[in-house]
Amino acid sequence: QVQLVESGGGLVQAGGSLRLSCASPGRAFNTLVMGWFRQAPGKEREFVAAITTHTDYSDSVKGRFTISGDNDKNTVYLQMNSLKPEDTAVYYCAAYLGHGYPARTPIMYDFWGQGTQVTVSS
Question: CA 72 to CA 114: how far, in whole Å?
């Protein structure tokens, strides 16, 4: 079992920045494929970004969001810049045991964090 602990959501004005964190206590970060997904009210959960030795981003966040990892802290980060109101959603950290190019589909991810709300005001 992999526990994922998220932090860093909040309310920000359009154009602002937030950084989300996801820790996996007791599990070496480099044994996991780590991803971020988001879900807005009335919409399906959608892929945002993922990381192994590769990184992948959805088109909607490419160039604005950056995913990174700290092996020493077993933590993955999502730095979100130039935020837009349409980025408002609950953001979930997710993981599965593996390597290689990270998956984009939620069904591939076995472990999920509790979610953190990100609200971007216009």
Answer: 23
